[in-house]
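Workshop exercise sheet. Pairs work together: one partner reads the sequence aloud, the other fills in the structure field after running the prediction. Swap roles for the next sheet.
Pair: D.N. / O.F.
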Amino acid sequence: MKNLPIGIQTFRDIIQNDYLYVDKTENIFDLVKNPKGVYFFSRPRRFGKSLLISTLNEIFAGEKELFKELWIYRSDYSWKKYPVVRIDFSKKKAENREDLKGFILNQLKNIASKYSVSLERDQYDEAFDELLTKLSEINKVVILIDEYDKPIIDNIENKELAIELREILKGFYTIIKACDEYIRFVLLTGVSKFSKAGVFSGLNNLEDISMDARYSSFLGITKEEIVDNFKDHIEQFAESEGVSEPELIKKITYWYNGFCFSGTCEKIFNPFSALLLFKKLVFGNYWFESATPSFLIKLIKEKEFDLTGLDGVNISESAFSSYEIENLKIIPILFQTGYLTIAGYNKDRMEYTLAYPNFEVKNSMTECLTEAYSFVERELVHGYAWKLIDALRDHELELFFDTLRIFFANIPYDLQIKKEKYYQTVFYLIFSLIGLKVEAEIKTNIGRIDAVIIDKEVYIFEFKFNGDKDNALRQIKEKKYFEKYQGIEKDIYLFGVEFVDRNVGEWTVEKMHV
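Structure field:
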């Protein structure tokens, strides 16, 4: 059973130390076989972008023997050696303009030294031009840029600085097009996809392959690759869980599969979660916990974004290229960072449907949002959700509503909010979380049926803000919210609940028999 390369982003280390490597070199060959290519490729964090850059570095360095067991070794690739300019912007957090300029210049000088080239220019953009010109005397140059957008993302909450750093990067990337005659291959990777009018305005020959169906599984691991490459790990895990391998694969798929980056909707696993799962043999929120999206959640609250439509939102194709510092839009950011993914594509309308990719992301994001809106700590949110579920199942309804009140009691009294909409959002999040925990079905539709939980029984809730519990119950009956659930042979409970003085007030319940 091969060792798992957790946290290892260097291709040479993985091969020489016999770590498990999912062979992606056929996809890589499709890129490098072209006499010239200038590409951009975005993926969320922890998807293997740095490993891809490292792999390309070895290919263009002509290190054929490293690939002996892989697809590309048997191909007709020429294995010529090219000078490589490789820069990883994740190595440095730029605090100001001079920080970023200094970092770039230092990286260029290190690369020049590696190839015994001396640089006379001290301006970062001029030095880049000089380096490419001199390296081209050896052979045409390969440029590999990892985390191209990191300086901007690191400072995204400081809009003025982020814009300044964007302009520096724009000037740097513009040199690539100006030196086109010296270049063999270019790949820039990152998380965000800024519009071509922004960072890449001077690099308009860049081909964006981020949502190209040919490269939808370029990074990440498909279900078939999980089954083929992790056979021994699956067998070991199934034995420890006491389940069959098909049962285990089904659960792993539910938890971690579902990321999709093209209209074909080819689903893939995030490799970080998959590797940690097979190492620890315990289901957990591995990818999500590696970086909590605090900035995104803050932005969602500031813009008073309607969360009830988040899981299944439709957007146009053009929305993916409208990401700019001056006007940050929530949906494109959530997609690019991996918290939403493509769930469907309508070719006629050129319209995408986005949704949470899997249980790990949906459950973790819902917990984070519930904490942000209710001010109940996330560690407690999880426990309270289970307390609500257990109380419903045991018909301890006083305990259920007492627990529900905790979420609203923590909201600061002086919070400047549009009250009803805000509290409706909290209800939505709580009931979404309950539905996830029971792994059954929950329907929330603020404005129609407020909440429906389908577990061993069916629970229908109607909330009245500054209204009467009996009126809430009467509305359920008059509008016959229960009708669609009468054929599933489960008892149905109707709850009328009033919401007064910023919290859950009195309630009433009526049971309908099958």
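Discussion prompt: The mean pLDDT is 91. What would you look at next?
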